Fold this sequence. Notes:
Number of helices: 15
Largest sheet: 7 strands, mixed
Radius of gyration: 22 Å
CATH class of the largest domain: Alpha Beta
Number of strands: 14
CATH architecture of the largest domain: 3-Layer(aba) Sandwich
Bound molecules: pyridoxal-5'-phosphate
Shape: globular
Distance between the termini: 45 Å
Structural class: alpha/beta
Strand content: 15-25%
CATH superfamily of the largest domain: Type I PLP-dependent aspartate aminotransferase-like (Major domain)
Amino acid sequence: MSTTAHETFSTLDWGRVDLNRVPHLPVPPPGPLSQHWHERCTRHFKGLSGQVKLFPVSFESGCGCVLRDVDGNEYIDFSSGIYVTTLGHCHPKISEGIAKAAFQLMNAHDFTTPIKTELMEKLDAVLPGDLTAFQLYDSGTAAVEAGIRVLRAASGRHETVSCFNDFHGKTYGAVSLGHIRSHVYGAVRAPGAHMVPRPDAYRPMWTKPDGSIDTDKYLEFYGQYLDKATVGAVAGFVLEPIQGWGGSIMPPDDFFPKLRKFCDDRKLLLMADEVLTSWVRTVKFLAMEHWGVVPDVVTLGKGFGNGFPVTCVAVREPFKECFESISASSSYGGNPMACAAALISTRVIEEENLLEHATHLGELALRRMQKMKERHRIVGDVRAKGCLMGIELVKDRSTKEPFDRAGTLVYQKAFRKGLAWIPAGHILRMSPPIVMDDATLLRGLDLIDEAIGETAQELGYT
Length: 462
Ligand SMILES: Cc1ncc(COP(=O)(O)O)c(C=O)c1O
């Protein structure tokens, strides 16, 4: 086949996609054109994620909550790229804003531009508390590295504490804060990078006599750990408010308020890595707002630019001056296209009343997922905070043994039915765009329900 991208690709038209017909699968996916492009591309592009390896489809366009592949199949999108296009693919206001900047000025290093100024003022207005100073970067991991620099500059100390199963990015400092699966990434963790367990409501390590999670025990352990396992040079804690890659792991409601007090008492900084959870993925601009906690340092990413690579580190007023010792200069950070993407995304959230809609979608999804739990014994737990959702598959509800094989099969079966989404072993992770309508969300969840039913049958777990 002598196809070129230019000959083949069309775009979906925002506002004109017929949601009632999605999913629409004229060809069983992955179809012949998907296979053609995938085969050509992967002769050179190596190291694909499990998401792609398990379902090698090739996409050509996206519009709102719909993705179209190169064979003309249309899918309901439950992945938002990878937690990125929270406001849907190719939102016309955002795409136009980026295009306008691209024709006007693409890069001006860290010089001031009017669009960057407007973004700074918008961030100041929408972020909680006294988070008033910002630097801009081009990836989540770069923002996390900058956050680590702030911790060091503000405290004069170098050790950090993060949590088991965290993910913070792939550069050296960020990798050192996360769960390392390979010697290539983590032959040597950065000196002073410590990890502790964090409360997971479904799989608690410490419980009270009534079986509920005992958050105080975790904090007690942190105290002992700091006293006995560090060199006394801890700058602060770095945590994801909700663990994304870990499997949409939600903390108990008392965890972050107690951790905030713990940090204040010990004069430690609290850094929230909100690369995945920020910009209304969980309904609020920051997930930490659910617990009324203002972190000292916050990273923003993914949905922040709704698909354009733009990320941010924000710090509270007392740490503003530390930024002076950390140069904001980078090749791409804060370029006019990036600023337009973030500024317009934020405006769209406000103008289209999307906070309310995301809340409604999260509640609707949770009710529907609870029905799946009643119906299928391999569903151990279901959870959602806004449009950040998870379904945990287990072999046995009493032992909670993870059911990875079931996770893989459910992912592939639902994809084959027209749901583009994210696998993670036994935890099914969903991050639909918050612009989705109720009927499309419920249709997507129906596909998962059907796929779980068929998988349970196939594996003999009905
Ligand atoms: C919490 C968190 N931090 C940091 C990152 C790294 O972001 P990026 O892939 O943009 O470097 C991710 C990516 O998934 C993430 O989920």
